[in-house]
Amino acid sequence: MTPDNATDLARHALLLLLSVAAPVLVTALLTALVIGVIQAATQVQESTISFVPKLLAAALAAIVTGPWVLERLVAFGREMFSLP
Question: Is the pLDDT reported for residue 1 higher than 80?
Answer without folding.
Answer: no
